[in-house]
Amino acid sequence: MDTGALSSAANQSHTLPAGYQTEFTYTPLDYCAPSIRLLRIHPETSFDDLIQCQLHHASTTSTYRCLSYVWGDDSWYYWILVNGQRFRVRRNLYSFLRVAWQQKQCHSHWFWIDAICIDQSNGIERNHQVKQMGDIFAGAEQVVAWLGTHKGVTLFLETSKHGENKGASTQGPRKLRKRRQIMGITERDTQAMIDSSGSQGDSNEGRISTAYLDAYRQFCFADYWDRAWITQEVALARQITFMAGEVSLSASSLSFDLNYICDDRIGALDPRTTHELRGRSLIYLMDRFKAKKSCVVRDRVFSLLSLCGEGSDVTVDYGVTELEVAENVLNCCRRSFCLCSIGIVAHVLGVQTELTTPLCLLNSRREYAQITLPVTTDSETFRTSENLPALYEPDYNDSRLTLKIRALCRSYRGRLRVSPVRIPLLVSYGHEIFDEWRTHTINGCSLELSNDQQSCTAIFSSAFLYEIIQFNRSLMPCCERVTYEGTSSAWTSSMPALTLCE
Length: 502
Known about the structure:
Blueprint: E1 35-41, E2 52-59, E3 65-68, E4 77-82, E5 85-90, H1 91-102, E6 111-112, H2 114-117, H3 123-131, H4 133-139, E7 142-146, H5 151-162, H6 173-183, H7 187-196, H8 204-220, H9 230-235, E8 240-244, E9 247-250, H10 259-262, H11 282-288, H12 299-302, H13 322-332, H14 339-349, H15 352-355, H16 358-363, E10 369-376, H17 379-384, E11 390-393, E12 400-404, E13 415-419, E14 426-430, E15 437-441, E16 445-449, E17 455-460, H18 462-471, H19 480-484, E18 499-500
Helix pairs in contact: 5-8, 7-8, 13-14, 14-18
């Protein structure tokens, strides 16, 4: 089905439908309970062909299904009726509602659909619903992953459903053509898919296999896989059904074996392996899914909270700034905190530019993070040893300390030369391989050498640490401390680590 033919032109505008004077008004949810709203599609449309739905209050213990989908372009809206009142939905959601309305088995099901079941204009309600989003999807009897009406994706689900990827000989070309006719997929569409894949094969079986391969590629490159929220929606689902056009297929029946195509696009979201994501550090998940997209930037964080172990207590609040969200994430991820944590959070929340503004630098915490490191006075031992990351040179211009940046985070390179007797503090950053040094006057670092000169404690401001990250700005690393958090190989407390100051 083509979404361009879903409805009459009058239904595709912002104009109020004739005969309806009021938009839908929500009744408040109980914020002290796991309350939600559920939607059911009526089998009959209104007198002017509008889809009619019933919305009522329920809880996460009710029986329902969740819709996982892409909101999509907001330039076109379609009118539906909810409890007899007009309600606008975006094009992609309307496509699903229209297809579901045509399928009788959907009329008896209650659905949780965020765009309708949450009052998006109510900030308090949004916070309440997002906090329990994990429970909503984990409690659903089924999650319907709506992939839209793209003919290539529909063809992939259809061929997977009937085993046509095994070759045309198992089904026969006549049945193949008939099913494609029912789906609205013409021979021209199929030929276009074959041509776009560059197939030179002449056999019918080879051509169909090539068309299947290309349809699989279109499945992997569907916009659905770009969306941030689907990470936990797929990972927490009891049962997933993929749906495109009028074709549905259980995820358990779908093969993800063509890994050279799907790894980059789907990767960890293969329903067979999503259990491996649960309990991991929020910083690790943010790094793993940093390419995901969301209209609201902080949803790239909030969409992972129901999956993570460390970081699950991050406050869901749409009323604060992105910088405040970033600080909250770092404060809640102390076990995996390091330099790369700051870089990952800054990248995902898009606050790199804000972190370098004069106002932010002025207000940065002077004692933000610290580390205590063993010290040597022998330069050769310092150069070759992993366990002595600080060098003290007492006779060099009234003493100097050199710190390996790897001691702060193993994913970063370089050295810091600090002359602690100078005021303001003179700090030089050097490349570990080429020994190129840049000198900066920074007030965001203090050092204290122990009386026996066997160790030193370095205390850094947040601005100082971000400046180090800027020197490594071409890198977007995720070190072992972050990667291992939440696994049996977690970072051991006996190893020196950068920690947040209290």
